[in-house]
Predict the 3D structure of the following.
Amino acid sequence: MRRTLAAIEQLFSRNMRGMRRMGSAAIDLAWVACGRFDAFFEYQLAPWDYCAGRLLIEEAGGRCSDRTGRPLEIQSGNILATNPHLFEVLLDAVGWPATSATCA
């Protein structure tokens, strides 16, 4: 939770204008795919929470990765997702270095 709050603080320091969560990663990812949301990140998810959303985002031209920027895999357990223009900004703000410890 502390890592998530620190990431949110990073986004607000970069002039993020607002934040919304619908309570379901699947719907949040669908909304990124259709352009209602600009980005989504979460550090602890099960594959069923993000696999379908990943497909939607990539088919819509967006980008997804794990929290280190590596390709998203079924066992990743976390996701960064956005349109292609914001991906590097999101990764820089909320991504974890590859050497960081895993989520607890």
Observations:
- Helices lie at 2-13, 25-34, 47-59, 87-94.
- The chain has one domain: 2-94.
